[in-house]
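Amino Acid Chain and Its Fold in Token Form
===========================================
What this section holds: a protein sequence and its matching fold, both as plain text.
Structure line: whole-number tokens from a learned vocabulary of local backbone shapes, matched to residues.
Purpose: to set a sequence beside its fold so the mapping can be learned.
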Amino acid sequence: FYLSLLSYIFFLSFLFTFFNSLFFYSRFFFLMIRRPPRSTLSSSSAASDVYKRQDLDCTRGYEWWLLREAKKRNPEVVTYGLAWGAPGWVGRQQGYYSEDMIRYQTNWLKCARDVHGVEVDWLGLWNERSWGTTSYVKSLRAAMDAAGHNKTQLVLGDGTMPDIWAGLEGDKKFADSFEAVGLHYPCAAAALQERGEELMLHRKKVWASEDWWSESEWGGAVCWGKLFHQNFLSCLLYTSPSPRDS
């Protein structure tokens, strides 16, 4: 037990304190939390904070612990929540983007802030799926503001380049509702579609919200570093998280 506890403490301190202060400015460090819908993620499974409509539990799941420990060791770590899916009660299984989903998202932000003391910096909509509609994005933004989450910014995409151009040009309220577009493996998959500069002209951040190198040895570390430089220098991407199922 004590050996496991010491291992956890060492790992967290190395990841969020020593490694960060040694190699990066703290404001560049990034923690993405993938929110499970009571199902499997890519290589693990995790509990949902709300199984049923009236079953909100702000302590269920290890993600809360990870958020707290990261903030404890580096208060300036940037936090990002991304839904992997949603429980069956959301939208009564008739549609993901609904009033239920807005409640599901804002309740999670409220849990993070009021119970765990973490004001989440960024919130994604749905991992590698459609981003919804302009009306949904505006409604979610309004609900977040009404609940006091004004500082939490929305990210669209989290997969391929979202088709947001008509709304971005013709709907100011929609354009003001989100701050960034996240892409997966953008340079390798040409996901920018030569529209990265256009997004930046609209003052939107563009980043690789999923990018990684899988080999956990020095050769893999070198390739990972190369990937970071490629994303920034070639694609002008602001950040490149390398998520595991957390």
Summary: Confidence is low (pLDDT under 50) at residues 22-28. The CA atoms of residues 144 and 150 lie 7 Å apart. The beta strands are 30-35, 78-83, 122-124, 153-159, 180-184, 205-210. The two ends are 22 Å apart (CA to CA).
